[in-house]
Amino acid sequence: MSLITLKKYLEYPNKKEEKDFCRFIDYLMNNITTITAISPSFISEKFNISKREAQKFLQHAVKTNFFEVEQQLICPKCAYTIDEITDPNNLPKETIVCEDCGLEFTPKKGDIFVIYKLSEEAKEVINKFFRNKGRQN
Ligand SMILES: [Zn+2]
Fold this sequence. Notes:
By secondary structure, this protein is an alpha+beta fold. The protein folds into 2 domains: 1-66 and 119-137, no CATH class; 69-116, no CATH class. Helix content is 42%, strand content 18%. Strands 2-1-5 form a 3-stranded antiparallel beta sheet. The chain has a two-stranded antiparallel sheet with strand order 3-4. Bound molecules: zinc ion.
């Protein structure tokens, strides 16, 4: 889904999946201040699709600049966000201490939480669309 396709979808929602997508965007816009991150499970629930399909959707959304991806190192004990990870294959080798609960641990891939966020570009496209429709959000 590119931003251009998104614009088209928002303007001409005729097919079922396009309507679903518009509903999803509508939902995002109405909750944009409370939604800080989007997970595959979230997409899977909203669209009523499998987690695998949701994963594919998100990967595509990142590739087309609709979403941005962020990988965070989360404390395995208290879920405190310790740091943002740029390369999950190059994790710190030394022991880390969680600032929040004091747990000492060596980061593993399982401690990385991947989150998806609407990109600034996508927000602009969506905002403009709703402004043109004379809607408040
Ligand atoms: Zn902790």
